Structures are given as structure tokens and as C-alpha cells.
Amino acid sequence: MAQLASALAIMIMGVLGCAAYFYGSNFLLDKLFPTKNRPYEQIARNLRTANMVRPWLFLGPAVLLLTFYLFYPVIDSFRLSFFDRTGDGFVGLSNYVWLFGSDEFFESFRNNMLWLIVVPTAATFFGLIIATMTDRIWWGNIAKSLIFMPMAISFIGASVIWKFIYDFRSGDDAQIGLLNAIVVFFGGEPQNWITIPFWNNFFLMIILVWIQTGFAMVILSAALRGIPDETIEAAVLDGANGVQIFFKIMVPQIWGTIAVVWTTITILVLKVFDIVLAMTNGQWDTQVLANQMFDWMFRGGGDFGRGAVVAIVIMVLVIPIMIWNIKRANAEMEGR
Amino acid sequence: MVSSSKRTPLTFLVHATVLFLVVLWTIPTAGLFISSIRDKDQLSVSGWWTALSTSEQRLVVRAHEPKSQVQQGDRFVISGNLLEGGKGEIARFGFSSLKPENFAAGEVAEMKKGRTLQVNANGDYVLSSPTEWKGSRGQRIFYTAEIPPRFTLDNYREVLNAEGLGQSFINSLTVTIPATIIPILVAAFAAYALAWMRFPGRALLIAGVVGLLVVPLQMSLIPLLKSYNLIGEFFGVGSKTYVGIWLAHTGFGLPLAIYLLRNYISGLPGEIIESARVDGASDFDIFRKIILPLSFPALASFAIFQFLWVWNDLLIAMVFLGNNQEHLVLTGQLRELLGSRGGNWEILTASAFITIIIPLLVFFSLQRYLVRGLLAGSVK
């Protein structure tokens, strides 16, 4: 109970403190540069000053937070990648030399590439298929809700759920993991799925596909509904069948949205860390970059230089998406 | 939509495929839930899909100790019930580990030295001997029993009390609520400024926000950890505080929040804002009295998003709040249990269900807003 009360107090103070800033600073600005009941000239001058200052009052916290939490770390990671394990001694390129000489790096790089190919493709594919089909049936919304549901589950919770599905019992013991039970039912040999080298990567990817398909489905379904009925009716009149309509009429029209979904999931995949940590912690050849970086941050007291080098690799992989994103946003704004 | 295909045999195929996919997507969570309310002995020997059927279990117990024997005529008898009041039916039994299923229930098993053992289907057993029973431990009895399904909340009781999940639940709430509200406040003000206020550098800031959308947050961990340690030293407090994690979640959530909210707010009709300006309202008044109420749908959807994301986060909590019991959040606790109690499925399933129940509730009750928010930012 005491814990609950203090938690509540901390929460209220935190939120009020933030609200107080916005109210306080704007109140102060209005007091310092009043714009009512003054000589006309003073009002005009005060209004100009206030209009110059106020955007920065509004933006101030956001800019500070973005700078401290995202912009500065990017720069500093780059700097740290040239320094030794404590971040004090300059070591030049030796972290990079280590990186490209380490088998561990190539293993996680290869796995990351597999994740980047398989997960966005599979999630977008399933999402598109399910979106198309659920739009045609009366219980489509219920089906969508259920498929969307894993979005709400944490990666770590999902890992427990799937670990249970992949559970393995040796010998003649009854299998309590669903996958092995099915295999045994059809007369197969039970397997310890998450320790099979190479293929275990795919068993981990299934978890993320399971989570992300709902996201792809919701967005693609909205895009599909945005396709004008006339184009589809015209195709039907011309004698196109369902598959032709889907691939030749619908998919090309929502190409932009497919790209958005694809990139969003790609970014997520680059950051994936919890699933590997919980399922295998990188054992049995399942290491990925994000997990490896985390590993180097804390292994034996931490090696910030090597951790930062891995972070730089992740960043480099993201840069093309970043540029594409900014270009798209700019094009959008010009259209306004 | 495609009305012409409604009456074709394809419709049946569509229904069947969707049903199959829905089942495929729901089964993992359903399995977890069913497992979490099963009896822990049954959970460890049979799959959750058998939860409703009677399960066959091979068990071993010791009979009562020799001191409870009574003399009946010229024989010494020890009796009792193997199931001890529980439900179930015994099919076979035995007295040796080599032949645990040697006798059917109701049979009289001949042991050495003229001793006999009889076990009935209801669990009653009778050990009888012509000589006095000696020693301090009871005879071992092996049996195979049909145990009916048993559902219980014991697993939940156990994890909430003994495994520290109750505490973590409160910690998770303490982290999540401010880390949801603060970024909304900060982002809403910033989004309004970027959408409707004119000042130099606006375009650059917008491009910056879009660029930062994709920065992987792992990038930030090492520099931030160093800064946090410095700041903690400077103020003489620990580097792992709630304020620290709120601000971290705020910082990491901001690009998406500003981006979504700016898209929404800049789509609001400009006439309202202009006429309010003409009437002498300052930007702060406009924001408070016009923009905030009008953008409620967008704010709500981002709030849900941020809530789910913070509640489900593991990485930021591990780095900025630490792993001591006192501060551990639910996801961190679950991860610890996964390491220390990996084989105890009754603990893992119940714990996992506790960590996902709040997001699932939020998700199902507010799904409409969540979807609207997703669409506001992604489909143009």
C-alpha cells in the first residue's frame, strides 16, 4: 500500500511538473509582454516579440529531448566507436578491424539479413492476404481483431507463449509443446526446435511475423478500401478473375502503402532484441546485431567501443530508409 | 467490395481460409491462458489441449507408516486412501518400481512373506501381513490413475505473492502512466508549433523529426548510459530513477508522436484558427481551447500506442531502471523467471498472462482509436 501511494505521488508530480512548464512559461510570456490595454505601439511591439518567442516555448522541451535522447547519441556513438572499452583512450580504427575480423559479427550480420528479408516479406504478405479476404466476409472485423491482437503483447510475453509451443520433451514423455505434439501425432520424431542451427532462426522469426501481421493487415485493409469501386467493376466487366483483379488492379494501386508497411516493419526488425534475448540469448547461431550490441555493453563490465561499432552498423543499415522517409515527407508537404 | 464474387464457391474457401488463419493466430495465446489455470501437476505431464479430458497419470506414494497398523485377528493391517480425498479413478497398481502396473484395481497382490496389498478404484488400499510391520517408512505403492480435469487459480496466487509479480505490476504502472502522458503534452505543443506557427527553421525541424523516426534506439544506449551516470554523480543520486526512464521513453516516443500529431493538427480547418487569432486569442489560448479538444482522436490513439509500447518495453527498462527487485518491471520480471524458472510452466504461463492482460484489455476496449491513429500517420 505504501508502495502504491508513493508510486501515485511520483506519477502525479511528474505529470504536473510537465504541465506546469507549459502553463508557467506561457503565463510569464504574457505578463512580460502584455498585448492588452496598452498603447497601440507597445502592443504591436510586444506582439511581435511574443510571436517570436512563443514557438520556442512550445517546441523547447521537444527539441531538448530529441537532441539529448536521439541526435546527440548518434553523434556520440560515432565518436565512441573510435575509442577503447571505457570510452577514454583513442584507438583509431581498431574496433572496426576487430568487427570485420570477428566470426560473431558475421554470424549476427547474416542472421540480421535473414530477419530483414523474411519478416517484413512474410508479415506484409500475410497481412495483404488476410486484409483482402476479411473485407469480403461478414465476420471480417472479428477476424481482424483476433489477428491484430498479438500487437498488444510484449515481445517477451510472446516469447514465453512460443517457447511453450516449441517445448521439447526427450524420450517417450508426452509432449506438452503443441508443435512436437503434432509432429508425434503424425508419427515424426520430436525435435528441440530452438537449438537446431540455422533453422532455429526461422522459428524465432515466426514470433515476430505473428506479432506484425496484424499491423500490416490493418493498414493495407484501409488502403484496399480506398481503391475506387469503379476500377474494380470495370475489371470485372472486362472478365478479369479474382486473382487477376488482385494482382493487376489492387496491388499496383496500393503500392505506396505496401512500401510504408514494409519499411516500418524493417525498422522494427533492425531493433529486434527481446525475442532473441528471451528465446536463445544468441546461442545456437541465432545472434543478431541488436542483441550482440547489448551483449558488448554489459559483457565483463562492458566494452563501449565495440558496442558502439555494432550500433554504427545498425545505423548504416537504417540510413537509406531515413533518406527515403525524409524525401517522402518533403514531397508530401509540397503537395499541401 | 467485390460483390460479384459473393456467390461463387470461392466464398466458402475464403471463409475456411480466414477461419484457419484466425485459429492459427489465436491458438498460441489461448494455449497460454488455458495452461495458466491448469493444475500444475497436470500441466507438466499433458498438453493444454487435453485440459478438458481426463488425464492418465503414473504416480507413486508411500502408504501410512507401520506405527498406524492395527491388528485384525491374526493379521496386521495398514489402510488408507491413495488419492486422499481428491477425485480420480485408479486403473492399475503395483508395489515394485519394476512392475508399477502389475495389478488391476480391486485385485489382491501377493507380496513376500505372505503379505498382501489391495487397491480399489476409489483409492482405498489395504496392506495386510501375518507378521508385525517394521521400520519407520511406509510401503511404496505405484499406481496409474485417471485424474479428471482440474482448474485452479493457485498459479496466479503463487506468482503474485511469492514471485514478486505484484510489486512489478505497480512498478510497471509507475513507469507507464507518466511515460504516456508527458510525451503527449510535449508532442502536442510541438506539433501545433510545427503545423500552425511561423518561425525560421521550421522546415528543417520537420525534416529532423522525420529523420529521427528511424534512429534505432540501441544507438542511444551507450551515450545515454554515460550521461546518466554523470548526471547521477553530479546530483548525488542513483543514475537509475523513474524520472530518468520517463524522460527516456518520452524522448524515444517523441518523433512518432510529433509526426502523427502534426499530420493530424495541420489537417484541421485553418479558418477556425485564423478567426480565433483575429479575435485576439494568443497561440496558447488557441492551442488549449481549440486544438486540444479537436485533436482528441489523434491524442487518444497515440496515447494507446505509447502505453502499449512502454508497458511492453524490456530494453529501456533494463538499461535505465536496472534489474534490482525493487524497480523491476513486469517484462523484466518475466525475463528473470524465464531464466530461473524455465521449466516451471505453471509459473511462466501465469506470469506471462499477468504481463499481457493489461495491454490486451486496453487493446480490445480502445482498438477503434488505435486503428484510427495508425491510419492517420501511414495512409495518405
Verbal overview:
- The complex is a heterodimer of chains A (336) and B (380).
- Helix content of chain A is 75%, strand content 0%.
- With 336 residues, chain A is mainly alpha-helical.
- Chain A has 2 domains: 2-80, no CATH class; 95-333, MetI-like (MetI-like fold, Orthogonal Bundle), CATH 1.10.3720.
- In chain A, α8 packs antiparallel against α11.
- Chain A starts with a helix and ends with a helix.
- The model of chain A has no long low-confidence stretch (mean pLDDT 84).
- Chain B has 380 residues and is of the alpha+beta class.
- Chain B is built from 13 helices and 9 strands.
- Chain B has a 5-stranded antiparallel sheet, with no helix packed on it.
- The longest helix of chain B has 34 residues, at 345-378.
- In chain B, 43% of the residues are buried.
- The interface between A and B is large, with 123 and 119 residues.
- Chain B: Keywords: Cell membrane, Membrane, Transmembrane, Transmembrane helix, Transport.
- Chain B: Belongs to the binding-protein-dependent transport system permease family.
- Chain B: Residues 169-366 form the ABC transmembrane type-1 domain.
- Chain B: It is a multi-pass membrane protein.
- Chain B: This is ABC-type transporter, integral membrane subunit.
Question: How many strands, which pairing sense, and closed or not: the largest β-sheet of chain B?
Answer: 5 strands, antiparallel
How many DSSP helices of chain B?
13
- What characteristic shape of chain B results from the CA principal axes? elongated
Q: Could you describe the largest sheet of chain A, including whether it forms a barrel?
A: none
How many E-type strands of chain B? Answer: 9
Which overall shape of chain A is indicated by the principal axes computed on the Cα atoms?
A: globular
CATH homologous superfamily designation of the largest domain in chain A? MetI-like
Q: Ends of chain A: how far apart?
A: 54 Å
| Termini gap of chain B | 20 Å
| Average pLDDT score of chain A | 84
Number of helices of chain A: 14
Poorly predicted runs of 5 or more residues of chain B: 1-6
For the record, what CATH class of the largest domain in chain A applies? Mainly Alpha
Strand content of chain B: 5-15%
Structural class of chain A: mainly alpha
Number of strands of chain A: 0
Task: Provide the number of structural domains of chain A.
Answer: 2
Under the CATH scheme, which architecture of the largest domain in chain A would be assigned? Orthogonal Bundle
Q: Strand-and-helix sequence of chain A, N→C?
A: HHHHHHHHHHHHHH
